[in-house]
């Protein structure tokens, strides 16, 4: 299982711990069970690697019985399955935004900058600007402009954590080709 898929499984489970209608979210043992079942799902699909869809396919079955809901959830008619589905819907866009910010943008701008003749510290500056984490002002803007503040804050956190790996990758790739 790759680190990014493991991080995705952990992120889903962490989200259950902060949900306003959940008293007790998924524990570390629950994360372990989710990872094991995602591996089993991959094997059943005749793959020796796990993809995010494997985690998604088993998330409800593995985690629904592990949630302890607040009384308010029952009053509102919310079930563990509904809450987990909401979490799945919320986390998917975060991964897409993170991937675009940390991998697609530098991947698009790197060849353009090389074609324009940028090398050395100039190219490194472009990589840092394009592959840096999303700023926290994005959250403030999203909230003030009627956008999705939860998605914005999730993007800030995920890009901040993962940018250490993505920037290292882009610098390594650029150095390997003698560009910086």
Offer a few descriptive terms.
180 residues, mainly alpha, 74% helix, flat
Description:
It is a single chain. The protein has about 180 residues and is an all-alpha fold. The chain contains 8 helices and 2 strands; from the N terminus they run αβααβααααα. It has helices spanning about 5-20, 30-45, 50-65, 70-75, 80-115, 120-130, 135-145, 150-175, and strands at about 20-25, 70. The chain has a two-stranded antiparallel ribbon. The longest helix is centred in the middle third of the chain and has 36 residues, at about 80-115. The protein is flat, with a radius of gyration of 19 Å. The mean pLDDT is about 90.
Give the gist of this structure.
With 180 residues, this protein is mostly helical. It has 8 helices and 2 strands, in the order H-E-H-H-E-H-H-H-H-H.
Write the layout of secondary structure elements.
Layout: H1 3-18, E1 22-24, H2 28-44, H3 52-63, E2 68-69, H4 71-75, H5 80-115, H6 120-131, H7 137-144, H8 149-176
Antiparallel strand pairs: 1-2
Helix pairs in contact: 1-2, 1-5, 2-3, 3-5, 5-6, 5-8, 6-8, 7-8
